[in-house]
Design brief:
Layout (H helix, E strand, L loop, with lengths): L1 H14 L1 H18 L3 H34 L5 H20 L7 H15 L12 H11 L5 H12 L3 H24 L1 H8 L2 H27 L1
Keywords: Membrane, Transmembrane, Transmembrane helix
Pfam families: DsbD_2
Protein name: Urease accessory protein UreH-like transmembrane domain-containing protein
């Protein structure tokens, strides 16, 4: 069960890579163009993305740990989370297929609640002239308001464990890495592939049907 959960996280990241590129791809590609030394540019790109992974893992640990506290106080908590995770899987699928702006409200919430405070630290990291700054910059941008990331966090909540929550979000981040790292090296070709309508529809439908399956399972559990 745990392995399948982490595979779900990885697939969510992989399926949503097109959105990740739209949100953060500009930064990844700019590192390649702004730094003349190609080896150094590649190192900075890897460190930037590793910084994102660290922030996602910290967020996963936080929500997983908090959910563990609530789960110990309520027998119905797990059932409620099952419904929420299934619902958000459907929303992610629709979002990826661009059939509905189903996660925009989450991004707006994150912008006002979190990002407007964190983004102020940008000034301390620019220009990116060291490996430490590249890593910290990625960690900072890991908190960028993103509906896809927030949806993954709703799944991390279902783990009801800080370590599992962190590993779930790390798996999600790993799913985004092929596109994010590759985008820095081959921006246009990867972006074109991920924005292909057929690819988006296939990936989105898989997530929607998986979400509906989870909702069906949760409903059956609620009735028994």
């Amino acid at each position: 069960m745990t392995e399948s959960l982490f595979l779900t996280a990885f697939f969510m990241g992989l399926a949503g890579s097109g959105h990740c590129i739209a949100m953060c791809g500009g930064i990844a590609s700019s590192l390649q163009f702004a730094i003349e030394d190609k080896t150094k540019a590649q190192q900075f790109t890897l460190l930037y993305n590793f910084g994102r992974l660290i922030s996602y893992s910290i967020a996963g640990a936080l929500v997983g740990g908090i959910s563990a506290i609530f789960a110990s106080q309520s027998n119905n908590f797990s059932l409620i989370l099952s419904f929420i995770s299934g619902l958000f899987m459907v929303l992610v699928g629709l979002y990826i297929m661009r059939l509905a702006a189903s996660l925009n409200w989450l991004e707006k919430f994150g912008k006002y609640a979190i990002w407007q405070h964190i983004v102020k630290f940008n000034k301390y990291l620019l220009p990116l002239n060291s490996k430490k700054k590249a890593l910290a910059y990625g960690a900072l941008w890991g908190w960028l308001p993103c509906g896809l990331v927030y949806s993954a966090l709703t799944w991390a909540i279902t783990t009801q464990n800080a370590i599992s929550g962190a590993l779930f979000m790390a798996s999600f981040a790993l799913g985004t890495l092929p596109a994010m790292i590759g985008f820095g090296f081959a921006a246009q070709s990867i972006k074109k592939w991920l924005n292909n309508t057929i690819i988006r529809m296939i990936l989105g439908n898989i997530l929607v049907f998986y979400g509906l399956y989870l909702l069906t399972i949760a409903t059956k559990n609620a009735l028994h």
